[in-house]
């Protein structure tokens, strides 16, 4: 076997251009970008066997944390802004703004999964009011040309609110048919 132009990188023989980087006692794959230092002070990228770093910092409302072994800037808090349908908006501070518009969607057929006793969201009801979410869902879907796929976005938002409040929902995407739209759970 001709190994000209190849090098051993991370225990695997790769073309020289795909060689990873050994940097500060760690190995990084070619093309990998990481945030380093306890204050997220450097953003470093591995390319052609060499690591290059640039200054980096978290935003005003972010903190440097490590999640699942990966360091990064994470928001200090979360909030939700809704475009609740044509002409209806709810801002981060909870204020509602209405603008005139026509709509012909008025069914909770799709949105009822949020408040269904046999649905995947029952464990969240104590943390995030399902009634408000069903109403918001109906308003959001009113202006949608494809309510079924828009529903998955709405359910993902509700699931994120539940998870932010410490509620584990399990395989809600599979139970709602939204598994093909969003990953990971």
Structural class: alpha+beta
Structural domain tally: 2
What is the molecular shape?
elongated
Radius of gyration: 23 Å
Number of helices: 3
Strand share of the residues? 25-35%
DSSP helix fraction:
10-25%
- What is the total tally of β strands? 12
Series of H and E elements: EEEEEEEEEEEEHHH
Biggest sheet character:
3 strands, antiparallel
Strand ordering within the main sheet: 5-6-7
Low-confidence segments:
102-106, 181-185
Q: What gap, in angstroms, lies between the N and C termini? A: 43 Å
Average pLDDT, rounded to a whole number, is 79
Give a verbal description of the structure.
- With 185 residues, this protein is α+β, with helices and mostly antiparallel strands.
- The chain has two domains: 6-75, no CATH class; 82-176, no CATH class.
- The chain is 19% helix and 28% strand.
- It is built from three helices and twelve strands; from the N terminus they run E-E-E-E-E-E-E-E-E-E-E-E-H-H-H.
- The strands form five sheets. It has a three-stranded antiparallel sheet with strand order 5-6-7, with no helix packed on it. Strands 10-11-12 form a three-stranded antiparallel sheet. Strands 1-2 form a two-stranded antiparallel ribbon.
- A hairpin with a 2-residue loop joins strand 10 and strand 11 (88-90).
- The longest helix is centred in the last third of the chain and has 18 residues, at 147-164.
Descriptive tags:
alpha+beta, elongated, three-stranded antiparallel sheet, VWF/SSPO/ZAN-like_Cys-rich_dom, 2 domains, single chain
Indicate the topology:
Layout: E1 6-9, E2 12-15, E3 21-23, E4 26-28, E5 33-36, E6 42-47, E7 50-55, E8 62-67, E9 70-75, E10 82-85, E11 88-90, E12 96-98, H1 130-142, H2 147-164, H3 172-176
Antiparallel strand pairs: 1-2, 3-4, 5-6, 6-7, 8-9, 10-11, 11-12
């Amino acid at each position: 076997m001709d190994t000209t132009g190849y090098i051993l990188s991370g225990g695997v023989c790769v073309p020289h251009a795909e060689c990873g980087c050994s940097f500060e006692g760690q190995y990084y794959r070619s093309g990998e970008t990481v945030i380093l230092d306890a204050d997220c002070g450097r953003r470093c990228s591995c390319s052609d066997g060499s690591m290059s770093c640039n200054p980096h910092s978290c935003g005003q409302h972010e903190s440097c944390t490590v999640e699942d072994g990966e360091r990064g800037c994470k928001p200090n808090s979360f909030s939700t802004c809704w475009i609740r349908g044509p002409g209806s908006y709810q801002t981060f501070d909870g204020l509602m703004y209405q603008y005139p518009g026509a709509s012909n969607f008025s069914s909770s057929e799709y949105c009822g999964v949020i408040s269904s006793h046999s649905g995947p969201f029952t464990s969240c009801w104590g943390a995030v009011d399902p009634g408000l979410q069903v109403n918001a869902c109906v308003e959001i879907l009113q202006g949608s040309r494809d309510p079924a796929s828009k529903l998955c976005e709405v359910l993902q938002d509700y699931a994120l609110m539940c998870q932010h409040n410490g509620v584990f929902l399990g395989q809600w995407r599979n139970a709602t048919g939204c598994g093909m739209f969003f990953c990971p759970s």
